[in-house]
Amino acid sequence: MLRIHFTAQDFARIRFAPRPAPLQELHAALTTAVAHHGGPLFAPWRGRVLRSLPAATEALADLVPAGRPPSFLDVLGDTMADGFEQIRATRPDLVRSELERVYGTVPAPRWIRGLHAGDETAWRTVHRAQRAAYETVLAPVWSVVQDLHREEFTRYALAVAEHGVAATLTGLAPGGRLHEGVWEWPDAAPARDVRLDGRGLVLLPTFHHPAGPLLQDAPSRPAVLTYPAGPGLPPTPERRVEALATVLGRTRLDALRLLAEPHTTTSLACALNVSNATASSHATALRSAGMATTTRTGRAVIHQRTALGTLIAGGGAP
């Protein structure tokens, strides 16, 4: 059981992370894949992830012997670059003590010994491994993770407004309760007591770790609770497409995605397999919403997506 002890000051310092943290989400995803969390529902995703990880990511496994990651890996950077900068800024004595903690008496690989000594080449190894893992595991679904985070942020805000902080916190922990300033999360392992002592708490949803909370408890900093949220399955690129199709309609969404490249009305109609009049109607609707532009070049009418349209479509063509 996880027991988090609040003071009155801590309740005033509870906040919800405004954006997902790429490195936290990546570490949650890799933990789920390697530790076989999520059961059979996660099996197809887990198999794809483990088969697709490039050799450069093997260094990350060296950092987590026996499933015990060093605490300096847990950061809340808004981007991968920001997150790595925060990791790299870790005090050398903390890097050494954490590596000694996770390895204990077990011999460490040579590059880990270099990291322990502050070798810059070893730090570049960490950076390459994290970047390679992100590009493989998270980059294809990052826009979906952002959408899910916004949905969870909204849900949390509404719950606090309607029911208060205490009821909202207990709702995040199945079977949990908040009693006399102690928030109990019954299924969390290993059992631990965390005293905030005025530091406050940051709530960060994860959409890749279904097995319970992950707690970052660094001295002199707010504790960060990463908790399972979302639909209960790993995000897929198709989820964003389905959501947009519900709003725009399937054909209009296809038109928006095709307009990543310039199209005449005729070429757009051919690509969509609709009449010129229907293609023109879709282009007009997208233009009215600020998602496309239409220009005339001689006798040709050219349609192309705007920056807003690219943002909404997620950046790519079909």
Automatic annotation (TrEMBL):
Residues 242-317 form the HTH arsR-type domain. This is Winged helix-turn-helix domain-containing protein. Coiled coil: none annotated. Gene3D superfamilies: Winged helix-like DNA-binding domain superfamily/Winged helix DNA-binding domain (1.10.10.10). It comes from Streptomyces endophyticus. The keyword ATP-binding does not apply. The keyword DNA damage does not apply. Keywords: DNA-binding, Transcription, Transcription regulation.
